[in-house]
Design brief:
By secondary structure, this protein is an alpha+beta fold. It is built from 5 helices and 4 strands, in the order ααβααβββα. A 4-stranded mixed sheet has the order 1-2-3-4, with helices on one face.
Length: 138
């Protein structure tokens, strides 16, 4: 499936067609594709949903799996969660514009906590989730 996504992205870049994808931001391939798109004249915008605690992430994945959705091992989920956070600072630098949301409130909409343009971060909420503070060395 990952290969299919890579082919899709490359096809869109080659044709100059605007597109959107969902990614966990866990690997370098996302950045490689983003650089190719930017070199081809695309504007890179990103929306990043953050959960302050891995335990909440795990709880939500388990609930989704119990409802018939996809699941993964705790070790895999832990690796993805922390890789994504580790890559956020790079995404902020490389994306033209990024909006970061705290998705920790159950039953409510995500809260926009920061935005960045050209690598410059603007905080929009008084309380930034601990995971973001750690990921961005705040």
């Amino acid at each position: 499936m990952n290969r299919e996504f890579e082919v899709f992205v490359q096809t869109q870049i080659d044709s100059g067609r605007s597109f959107a994808i969902e990614t966990t931001l866990r690997s370098e391939v996302t950045f490689e594709q983003a650089r190719m798109a930017k070199a081809a004249g695309f504007v890179l915008e990103m929306r990043y949903l953050a959960l302050g605690k891995f335990a909440l992430h795990l709880e939500r994945i388990k609930a989704r799996a119990d409802a018939g959705g996809h699941a993964a091992s705790e070790a895999t989920l832990r690796r993805i969660y922390f890789s994504s956070l580790a890559n956020l600072a790079q995404a902020i630098v490389e994306a033209d514009q990024i909006w970061v949301y705290d998705n920790g409130k159950t039953g409510g909409p995500p809260l926009l906590v920061l935005e960045a343009e050209g690598g410059l971060i603007h905080f929009l909420a008084a309380d930034v989730p601990d995971c973001l503070a750690g990921a961005l060395d705040l």
